[in-house]
Amino acid sequence: KNEVEQSPQNLTAQEGEFITINCSYSVGISALHWLQQHPGGGIVSLFMLSSGKKKHGRLIATINIQEKHSSLHITASHPRDSAVYICAVRSGETSGSRLTFGEGTQLTVNP
Amino acid sequence: DTEVTQTPKHLVMGMTNKKSLKCEQHMGHRAMYWYKQKAKKPPELMFVYSYEKLSINESVPSRFSPECPNSSLLNLHLHALQPEDSALYLCASSQDWGLLGQFFGPGTRLTVL
């Protein structure tokens, strides 16, 4: 069992739909990242969370530390949101902590 | 300037070639990272430099040789690679190792023939 699990692996939506991607982890963490990777490779850091909820434009990220679970929501989805969304957790505060990545969720938003 | 740049974007090399990948950031970050990413897989950490010193080598074969000439630059020297080394190589940086979020570069897509 991976330390970081995402669901679903693949998600197809129609433009305008509300989208949720889930991330569960099994280790103690100091922070959780949501990353976006477009075809061609570049990774963009969307959010870094250690508690609660963050919002940026149409994106919302939440985390429940007790349940070891985070969700990424996209409201009013658009074809340009099509990308791989990756959850990554940081397991320590001190020097030496590393990111452990989930397998990613491939999102396709059709017009 | 809040970006990490990588050159080249694409590289095709033979198994006997020697080439280098370059990464640069001007955010004053003191930690820099090399990741390898195969298709449809998450990135795998290869090396971490902290304050220009190699801090982590994740048992990477010696045909990959990292170098950090100064706090803004990170190189990855390649020699005698194998076709299975073909992948996307991502560079990232952060203010300090483990404390803040990592900024990723666009990657170099490497093909080894």
Short description:
The complex is a heterodimer of chains A (111) and B (113). With 111 residues, chain A is mainly beta.
Number of helices of chain B: 0
Shape of chain A, please?
globular
Low-confidence stretches of chain A: none
**Number of helical segments with 4 or more residues of chain A:** 0
Task: Summarize the biggest pleated sheet of chain A.
Answer: 6 strands, mixed
Q: What proportion strand of chain B?
A: over 45%
| Strand content range of chain A | over 45%
Q: Biggest sheet of chain B: strands, sense, closure?
A: 7 strands, mixed
Overall structural class of chain A, as computed from helix and strand content, comes to mainly beta
The sequence of SSEs of chain B as H and E is EEEEEEEEEEE
Give me the count of strands of chain B: 11
Low-confidence stretches of chain B at least 5 residues in length (pLDDT < 50)? none
Radius of gyration of chain B: 13 Å
| Overall helicity of chain A | under 10%
Global morphology of chain B: globular
The separation of the N and C termini of chain B measures: 36 Å
Q: Count of DSSP E strands of chain A?
A: 11
Most extensive contact: A-B, 25 and 26 residues
Global mean pLDDT of chain A: 90
